[in-house]
Every structure is written in C-alpha cells, then in structure tokens.
Amino acid sequence: MEGRQGVMVEVPKGGLPQAAGNNPLVQLQTKFKEVEGRFREWLSKQSIPVEAAVVTSMSAAQGAVIGAFMGTLTSDVSSQLPPQSNLAPQAMASLNQAQALAVGPFAQARNFAVMTGANSGISCVMKRIRGVDDVQSSMVAAFGSGALFSLVSGMGGSNVAANAMTSGIFFALVQGGIFKLGQKFSQPPTEDVFYAHTRDMLSGLGLQNYEKNFKKGLLTDRTLPLLTDSALRDVKIPPGPRLLILDHIQRDPELMKGRR
What we know:
By secondary structure, this protein is mainly alpha-helical. The chain has helices spanning 24-44, 48-74, 89-101, 105-130, 135-153, 160-186, 190-193, 196-205, 211-216, 229-234, 239-251, 253-257. α4 runs antiparallel to α5 and α5 (135-153) packs antiparallel against α6 (160-186). The radius of gyration is 29 Å and the shape is elongated. The chain starts with 23 loop residues before the first helix and ends with a helix. The model is unreliable at 1-7 and 14-20 (pLDDT under 50).
C-alpha cells in the first residue's frame, strides 16, 4: 500500500499484529493472577483455623482428582492379585498393602484427598505458628499426611499403629530430602546474591542490559550508595543511563543513608 509520500508499506496477510494487551489468553492469565493474589491476601488475614480449613479443603479436592485418576489405572490390578488363603504372615502383609494401593477411583480419591489435605493443612498451621516455611515444618506435615494415608488406605493391616508410624517417618524423610534438594537447586549463584538490589534498580529504570557492566567493575549492592559519575564512566555506562542511576540513588532514602 502506498503512503502519502510514495513510500510502500507492506501489510502482513493476516493483517496488523494483535497487540499483546488485546490477547484474550494474556488477559485471562493476568486476570487469574490478580484474583489469585487477592485471594491469597484475604486468606493471610484470616485466623489460623479458617486459613487451615480453606487450604486443607482446596488441597484435598486437588488430591481427590489425582487419586480418582490413579484409581482408574490401578482398579484392574486388584482382580489379578492371588487369593489370601494359605499365605505366610509376611506375604499376607505385603498383599494387604498391594490391595490397599490397587483400589478403585473412589477409594483412591479418598486416600489422596486425606494425604494432600493433611499435608497442606499441617504445613499451613506450622508456617503460621513458627513464622517460617522450613524443612522441619515440611517434615512434620509429611509425617502427619503419611500416617493418615496409612490409616485410611488400610495399608497398616493388623498392626495399624506401627505401620502408621512407619509410613509417617518414611514420608517425612522423603519430603525432607526433596525440600533440601529444592533449596539447593533454587538458590541463585553466590555472585548474583551481591547484585540483587542492583538488578532491581536497573530493571526498574529499564537499564537491565548494564548489569554486566556492574559485575565487570565489581560494583555490588554495597557500593550503590557510593556510586559516582566517574565510577559509572569507568565501567563504560553511557551518560544518559549514568544520570538516571545517580538520580535514582539520590531519591532513594535507604541508599542515601549509606552515604552518611
């Protein structure tokens, strides 16, 4: 198509690209995050019993769906198990555990609902009481969920209390190991820890491309209050970004305290 000054402008066959803000999927995701954020904010202001009840119910519902799906996969296995007559006590106990796991969708939905609901509910209470979400809280929640899962699923057999205790300990050890592994792999590199505030500042100013300049010059978070025009010039940051950075530091009361 020809413009007023004779310049040819090509228009894609599908028309002009749709703006990201008009994308229905993006709008739906944004709306969902807003609703989720408001819900979490409301839930954090409630009493411990209310928050625990809501969290337990929601997690139990999710666990029930997962359990029902698992039950459809394992329902046919129970029909293939051998009869219980003339079996040794140890073999009988193993068979009872296998039958407890190879049940139908409704029973598995119940089992998983109890397990996931108890885990989330105990974790919620522990976090509100202790104020932290650490490996101890995670292991306590896993112990409770494992013990309850053993009770409702029938895995305990005749020795219910001992098997519930064993299942709880096993769940707690597994959950503790997973928590520690998650912490290990989720922690940022040591170098990045020293540039957390720097990264936030540059991102807020739209200057995130200059983070490598800060790292190259070893301008860490501790040096932010001490930054000068010459220091930024030494790490080859252009005049415009230098002015924005220095102006931001002067306007930040926390950073200005470091200059005193």
